[in-house]
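Researcher: I'm comparing several assemblies side by side, and this is the next one on my list. It has 385 residues spread over two chains. Same procedure as the others: predict the full complex and return the structure.
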Amino acid sequence: MKLVKTGTAGTMESNDIMVTLDPKEAGGVQIALSSSVMQQFGRQIEAVIRQTLTELGVAHATVDAVDKGALDCTVRARVRAAAYRAAENQEYDWGIM
Amino acid sequence: MMFVPGNNPGMIKDAGIYGADSVMFDLEDSVAITEKDAARFLVFQALKTLDFGKKEIVVRINDLNSGLGIQDLEAIVRAGVHVVRLPKTDSAEDVVFCEKEIERIERAAGIPVGTTGMMAAIESANGVLNAKEIAHSSDRLIGIALGAEDYVTDLKTTRSDGVELLFARCMILNAARSAGIDALDTVYSDVNNEQGFIEEATLIKKLGFDGKSVINPRQIDPLHKVFMPSEKDLEKARAIMAAIADANAKGSGVASLNGKMIDKPVVLRAQRMLALAEVSQTDEGEEV
């Protein structure tokens, strides 16, 4: 999946995470994460973000994520929504999600 | 059936803990048009990941004519939703169209055809007048429901003491009974008016509805109290079933209790009451 613009999904509400993706040409995925549970779950949240982007075939991106205690499934959902928006892609392949 | 906005992760996470018999994640009216895609991703991931125990999980999709509804189906059928709630059902053709789309997706995803159930929400004068055809239109239908807010708008009136809904409720109820499926009543929007909610729940139970949609966990317990048979009613039901068993043991075709003959409708009501009590106790056990 090729990102072509900034894509954002999620809210600042409790149990949610706001994810903003920006396209990059090279340099891999760089994640700036702030979380209300950074000490306990920061590494786990970052791993879920990376894994989700890998599944989508996004090799290079800047990720800004503000977490308010989101479950892993919420992190995955918000990263996917942000990525599809950033790619201006509405051809969802639910079979591989 | 508790309504849960489909783009609210906190409410989705906690949806299973309040004791509702079923949970309905909403992709339609409670989701802003700009967030339809995000809500769809969220509900999809929640269905695939979270364990809601024995709760029946329903998703209300968007109108199939909007283009959003098909995308909703593509996601939630693959995620294994128990029941698809079709909004604004005006005719049997609406149900048949939705059913064909569900079947197409089930086949594409390798899901046994027929796995996904359906429920049709009737929200217009046309829908009410077509209630019987709608109720009989698909083997997947587990029930039909009244959506009152759109319906009263279509009637050019507003919600008041319930008299404006009486015809629709009776039509939907009789259509459901004709088809052997459930009849579910509409939401009561004023969550701070518990007395008004209880009065409406009592009315629809008297009419014969199987349940009611709720929009706040606070409405679940009062609703269950209205629908739960009293201990006196349960004692009578047990006595009826004991008298039937006794008559059967004696080879008698006629049973009586306290000098009154017990005929078939009385037995059916007693069986239904005991089944309802059993289910309620099971649910309470699950909560603990």
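Model: For your comparison table: The domain at 2-227 of chain B is CATH 3.20.20.60 (TIM Barrel).
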